[in-house]
Design brief:
31 strands; binds alpha-D-galactopyranuronic acid; about 575 residues
Length: about 575
């Protein structure tokens, strides 16, 4: 599945997953043996490859001619792409898409993708870590036939129009559905010479057209403002996720030569009076951190399993998910849009030290994730915030320089959402003066036995009095405790399900009663596999802090979280 909705009526698009691909490992005991593999999929889910860390060559054929666009939604973690034996693309990072445009003779062509999940100096983000870097073509591969001028993306930024009539909501048009406008930007790619075309945008019953526009060779962006006065717009909010399709067409000589459909929601995210607000309402975040991880599918989680996870989080009373610690599959984000689940999405990094951030590849690789994540995920109304660099070296001057650059890139690409970063630098954090939102990962009553309430109160006081974070919205982006599924004892020792349930009850009550705190993300939704090279003392070589285990079997804490989260409204006002 490419997206949960059709993106084209005219452009030809197909997912190259109907047939099994050929897979050949390039090292290890099975080197050179041919296998049949599903794409998307992880090689770890093939017999004999559960811990294969190396390179593998996938191959298939496809039939096309003319301008052929191949898009790879995710290859883990380093890819080299060959068409008819010629190298045509390469890409680093499992969690962001990349594409290549080819001009091919009509006929059958061979596509080969070499995937590499090894750890090395060349990989600054996929490193031995408290999650698994899988191997394979883990997200869909898409083949399109495009015209010389095609739509690369369309970005819609909805804005409420509150009139000048202060105090009179009805007159000011601030009531929902009354007055909206939207900035619209369309990115076109012209693979031919400069030529004239008409471009049209349709959204929520309104349309805008550029009649005869000279489109330069290469990429160019055209923009406009659309207004929806009195169009009865239905807003997108948690639990009322109204979606609208935006449809862009490129016409030449009166004929539609290319088109693109994306989906948007009428909601505006602001930071006002120390709160993150959606359409003026102060959100209360009741969330889970979720890795893309599953014992049967690795990180290539299929649609029905994504729906299962989101329905489970809703059953638990949650209204948000944090894509810890990397950009997620677009289908998952589409589902969050449809189910009204708020998303904190972040670039790829977890717990990198200053030394690791000084890897000569780090800045280029981390910044590339931001530049690839935001343009493709821009329209998802569920994404209310962009995060960077989870628990990296934000307590060092060098680290702060990296954070400043990455925050600046977010602002360059999207001024419509706040920014933040989950810190674990207790009272040594140097970066809270930069982002709009301050966030912390804390584990009282797990990694240390300080009582959660006094620990959080002391941290919050320090943030207000001694950092640039004073007065900013504040989120707890991780808090939790471990439990081994099925392990119980009358002592309620750590790792028992009883201990986790008791710890989370204290932690949730503490966070939700902390003045100035706007909510939390429990670490974590489900138990996940970790890379064995990282931390052998993790029981089962897993991160066991899930509320459900890796098979999504509920632990005792499930009912505790459900009771507490379900009793809390989605808004603080
Ligand atoms: C950190 C980190 C998580 C996870 C967690 C834990 O906060 O951000 O990825 O490793 O600790 O389980 O200790």
């Amino acid at each position: 599945m490419i997206r949960t909705f059709s993106q084209h009526k005219v452009r030809k698009q197909k997912e190259l997953s109907q047939n099994l691909w050929k897979f050949v490992p390039l090292s290890g005991e099975h080197q050179g043996t041919e296998y049949q593999a599903a794409v998307p999929g992880c090689w770890e889910n093939m017999p004999g490859f559960s811990s294969y860390r190396g390179e593998g060559m996938y191959s298939t054929t496809f039939e096309t001619g003319g301008n052929a666009r191949l898009e790879f939604k995710g290859v883990s973690h380093t890819a080299e792409v060959f068409v008819d034996g010629e190298k045509v693309a390469s890409h680093y990072n499992a969690y962001t898409a990349f594409d290549v445009l080819l001009h091919l003779e009509q006929g059958v062509h061979t596509l080969q993708v070499k995937a590499d999940n090894r750890f090395s100096e060349a990989s600054a983000l996929h490193v031995p870590n408290d999650y698994m870097s899988y191997g394979g073509i883990t997200r869909p591969v898409v083949l399109e036939e495009v015209a010389d001028i095609y739509v690369k993306w369309v970005h819609v930024t909805p804005k409420r129009v509150c009139g000048a009539v202060a105090g009179n909501l009805a007159e000011s048009g601030c009531e929902s559905g009354k007055q909206w406008k939207a900035d619209v930007a369309v990115c076109l790619n012209n693979v031919g010479e400069e030529q004239v075309a008409a471009v049209q945008v349709e959204l929520a019953g309104e349309s805008f057209a550029w009649a005869q526009k000279a489109i330069p060779a290469g990429e160019s962006v055209i923009s406009c403002e659309m207004t929806f006065a009195g169009a009865g717009i239905k807003e997108w909010m948690p639990k009322q996720p109204n979606l609208y399709e935006v449809y862009v067409t490129v016409l030449q000589d009166g004929e539609v030569v290319d088109d693109l459909t994306d989906r948007v929601g009428f909601r505006e995210v602001t930071v006002e009076d120390g709160k993150i607000r959606m359409n003026g309402r102060a959100l209360r975040i009741k969330g889970f951190c979720r890795h893309e991880d599953h014992p049967q599918f690795g990180c290539a989680i299929p649609y029905s399993a994504m729906v299962y996870d989101l329905n489970t989080m809703k059953d638990l009373g949650a209204n948000s998910v944090r894509t810890s610690h990397y950009p997620n599959d677009e289908v998952f984000l589409d589902l969050c849009d449809e189910m009204g689940i708020l998303v904190w999405e972040e670039n790829h990094a977890r717990g990198l030290s200053e030394e690791q951030m000084r890897n000569p590849n780090f800045e280029r690789q981390a910044e590339a994730v931001i530049r690839e994540m935001i343009p493709l995920h821009y329209n998802h109304p569920s994404i209310y915030i962009w995060g960077i660099l989870n628990e990296c070296a934000s307590d060092t001057e060098y680290g702060k320089e990296c954070y400043e650059k990455q925050y600046a890139i977010i602002k360059e690409l999207d001024t419509s959402r706040p920014r933040s970063s989950a810190s674990c630098k207790f009272k040594t954090e140097l970066c809270f003066g930069i982002p709009e939102v301050v966030s912390y990962n804390i584990y009282p009553q797990w990694y240390h036995d300080a009582p959660a309430d006094t620990y959080l109160a002391d941290l919050y006081r320090w943030i207000q009095e001694e950092t640039g974070g004073a007065g900013k919205p504040f989120l707890i982006t991780e808090i939790g405790a471990g439990a081994i599924y099925g392990y119980r004892n009358p002592n309620h020792d750590k790792w028992t399900e009883e201990y986790q349930a008791e710890a989370l009850e204290k932690q949730i009550n503490t966070v939700m009663n902390q003045p100035g705190c706007q909510g939390m993300y429990i670490w974590q939704y489900c138990d996940v596999r970790i890379s064995r090279e990282w931390f052998s003392t993790r029981p089962r070589t897993m991160n066991n802090k899930g509320i459900v285990d890796e098979y999504r079997r509920p632990k005792l804490s499930y009912d505790v979280v459900k009771k507490l989260y379900s009793a809390l409204p989605d808004y603080m006002d």
